[in-house]
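subagent[fold] <- orchestrator: predict structure for attached chain, return tokens only, no commentary.
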Amino acid sequence: MENKNFEDFNIAKISEEDVKNISELEKTLSSKAENDIVLIAYQPKDKGDFAKR
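subagent[fold] -> orchestrator:
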């Protein structure tokens, strides 16, 4: 997995529905892994930069 420089990102602005979907996915993955999993949504600070990644 590639390491990212998180200084280039902000916390993503997502809907409550998306937050709920991410939370459900966290629960599913945590159950399968038998370990706590935390998912975090980021977005590039420079929107044009996203296509380059």
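orchestrator: received. Logging for downstream: The chain is about 35% helix and 10% strand. The helical segments are 16-33.
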